[in-house]
Design goal:
It is built from 15 helices and 13 strands. With 350 residues, the chain is α/β, with parallel strands linked by helices. It folds into two domains: 96 residues, Beta-Lactamase (2-Layer Sandwich), CATH 3.30.450; 244 residues, P-loop containing nucleotide triphosphate hydrolases (Rossmann fold). The strands form two sheets. The chain has a seven-stranded mixed sheet with strand order 9-8-10-11-7-12-13, with helices on both faces. Strands 3-2-1-6-5-4 form a six-stranded antiparallel sheet, covered by helices on one side. A hairpin with a 2-residue loop joins strand 2 and strand 3. The protein is globular. The model has no long low-confidence stretch (mean pLDDT 95).
Length: 350
């Protein structure tokens, strides 16, 4: 077996989430959110050779031109990893995200029931947000799998790279990889409307063109799911609006308020007993009251709606963190690191 496969197998057995390969250091693993330098010993040329062993000719050409590349690396047993290869200080490095062996269910991920309810929406826009490494891709994979099992429809995805492979179940699923099957997320969205989809997954809403195309797809009767690197419902709305030039922001608020079904923000925290990690959520559902706030440019008031919208499944991140502390699932210190407003967090703790 190759050295890279040995390293990944070791990471999987040790329940690591990420592997970092960098010159002048042994392989570095992330376990329960913490970085740990391993005692595996490799020379600088060996580390470079290990990284290059994952690349095909086309990828190698890009790396030699100092481009960063994203791709999936598959072990002989079919297990998949998301890989980024990049340069720093004229040296080659790699970050490897270990993906689950199977697509997890809502129950196994500990997702609130409102996420299943959102997945049952026939049309509109659903956003899953959070920082890097917070499990957004996994939550979206669970949502797509649920739709795949429970509905007869056409699911189309645009991903960079494809992480979880979906098989056809009750639905048919076509997964397109940016840079391989299509040139960009925006390009995939433009052509999607001619491919008879019911559900569209956009890996990330990175720019004005992609955000605009996603909103248009939701307006034309499709269910669109996507991600943003934001840390709360209000900041997600603000980020989308701010991408557009000032003269069109009012129109975008109106469009967004007509299609948004929900924003799910998640963070991962280490469990108090050290046995793994657990998610904390902020969930905003697109009720009439919330959509009215978006339309009227009053996003700063969304937090109040989250606190009063428990009946619809809404909660603020601070409330969910306080709940986890009260249940002794996470420590106060860890919850405080993730709290968006420490005063509000302490109020929620009572």
């Amino acid at each position: 077996m190759s050295k890279i496969n040995d390293i990944i197998e070791y990471a999987r057995k040790s329940r690591c989430s990420d592997v970092h390969l960098t010159a002048k250091l042994p392989p570095v693993f992330r376990t329960n959110g913490e970085i740990i330098v391993s005692d595996l010993s490799f020379t600088k040329p060996e580390i470079e050779e290990i990284i290059l062993s994952m690349l095909d000719e086309k990828q190698l050409e890009k790396v030699n031109n100092t481009q960063d590349i994203d791709f999936c690396y598959t072990l002989p047993n079919g297990m998949r990893q998301r890989v980024n290869v990049y340069h720093q200080n004229k040296e080659l490095c790699s970050a490897i995200r270990i993906l689950n062996d199977e697509i997890p269910t809502f129950e196994s991920l500990g997702l609130p029931s409102v996420i299943q309810k959102l997945s049952e929406e026939p049309r509109g826009l659903i956003l899953v947000t959070g920082p890097t490494g917070s499990g957004k891709s996994t939550t979206l994979a669970a949502m797509i799998d649920y739709i795949n099992r429970t509905r007869r429809c056409h699911i189309l995805t645009a991903e960079d790279p494809i992480e979880y492979l979906h098989t056809h179940k009750n639905s048919i699923v076509h997964q397109r990889e940016v840079g391989v099957d299509v040139d960009s997320f925006a390009g995939a969205l433009r052509s999607a409307l001619r491919e008879d989809p019911d559900v569209i997954l956009v890996g990330e809403m990175r720019d004005l063109e992609t955000i605009s195309a996603a909103i248009t797809a939701a307006e034309t009767g499709h269910l669109v799911l996507s991600t943003l690197h934001t840390t709360g419902a209000a900041s997600t709305i603000d980020r989308i609006i701010d991408v557009f030039p000032s003269h069109s922001q009012s129109q975008i608020r109106t469009q967004l308020s007509s299609v948004l079904k929900g924003v799910v923000t998640q963070q991962l925290l280490p469990l108090a007993d050290g046995s793994g990690r657990t998610p904390a959520f902020e969930i905003m559902v697109g009720t009439d009251a919330v959509l009215s706030l978006i339309r009227e440019n009053k996003c700063h008031q969304i937090n109040s709606s989250l606190q009063t919208g428990a009946k619809e499944g809404m909660c603020s991140l601070n409330a969910d963190l306080a709940k986890l502390v009260k249940q002794n699932k996470v420590t106060m210190d860890e919850a405080l690191k993730k709290a968006s407003d420490k005063n509000e967090f302490f109020q929620m703790l009572g």
